[in-house]
Amino acid sequence: MKKIIIVFKKELKDTLRDRRTIIFMVALPLLVFPVLISLASGLIISKAREAQEKTLQIGLLTYGNASGFSRMLLDRKDVALHENLDQEQGITDVKQGDLDALIVFDKKFDRKIEALSKGSVKLYTKVTEEGEIERQRVLKLLREFEDTLLAKRFQEMDLDESIIETIDIEEQNLATAKERLAEAVGGFLPYLFIIFCFMGSMYPAIDLAAGEKERGTLETLLTSPVDRFQILMGKFGVVVLTGIFSALVAIFGLYIGIRRMTEIPPELLNTIMSILEVKSILILLSLLLPLSIFFAGILLSLSIYARSYKEAQSIISPLMFVVIIPAFIGLLPGFELTMTTALAPILNVSLATKAIIAETISLPQLLTVYLSLIMFAVISIYLCSKIYGRESAIFR
Questions:
Q1: Judgement on whether residues 127 and 253 belong to the same structural domain of the protein
Q2: Count of domains forming the chain
Q3: CA-CA 20 to 30 A from 310: which of 131, 262, 269, 376?
Q4: Of residues 66 and 42, which shows the higher confidence score?
Q5: DSSP code, position 227
């Protein structure tokens, strides 16, 4: 054990001297979350505020009907009304973005309303992700006009409006705030942590095997009075440590990014902070530890096999897609942690983290995830030791 620790310290010192490792292990995960969250939240809030405050450009065709609606819009400062146009021109203007909406009342609208029937209104919009707020604002105007017509109709009939309310529904959402948040972002968080864990392990693994081959220091290390397996375990420890540390830094960066958000409601902030409490972080790290060992075994095996640093990069870089795909599947709706998905590496971490955040994971499921990850970690160590024990691979 003492010799493994000596090799570990030596390899850790060499790793920390590598600028690329520091960038991918510390700088990137620490900066990416605060920057992304600040930019995204600022942009979303700015766009939403701009859409709420802008003057709506509304085309209106009434054919002599709905005079009350026209007066209502003319009295509003946040609406610019365009009435002198035909329907085809109005539709073209909406398509081109010159109008936010075109409202066309049926030619028999007033007659139908007077006959206690429903009047038809056509609403033309060009709904994109950015235009949804404008659409909702126009719909709100139409609903306000509908409420005035309905109130007038009940008044003329000398009826109470409450007579149309036959059922009083009291809806109660039994899903906790954590469950709702887990559904929204629960898969996104482990996706990022898995990626950073892999990236944090990748460059040290390349440097400690293929890099040593290139520098000619591997032969010197092998001639030392240390068993080859002990040398491998020392390197293994460094790769695992850098992967876990990178994920930890990513969590810390996420915490900083969330704390910097000023527009987030206090209730939502408290719920998010409860996810980042010590208990949840420890469980997440307990999942990432065997996963990091699994990554380390694969990365070191490929790096030992490679002839040079460049070849190791070209072999290992495509593995990023192999890691991303199962992690991304955990983001998709409909995928839940079961006894079957708990056996799939990477995917089980993504789904288990979502269930842990929602506090819906069962003990058998969690144990299955642990056993699966430990099994894959042991297999990766075994394969790596076999490759490291072959002279043809080391001196390839």
A1: no
A2: 2
A3: 376
A4: 66
A5: -
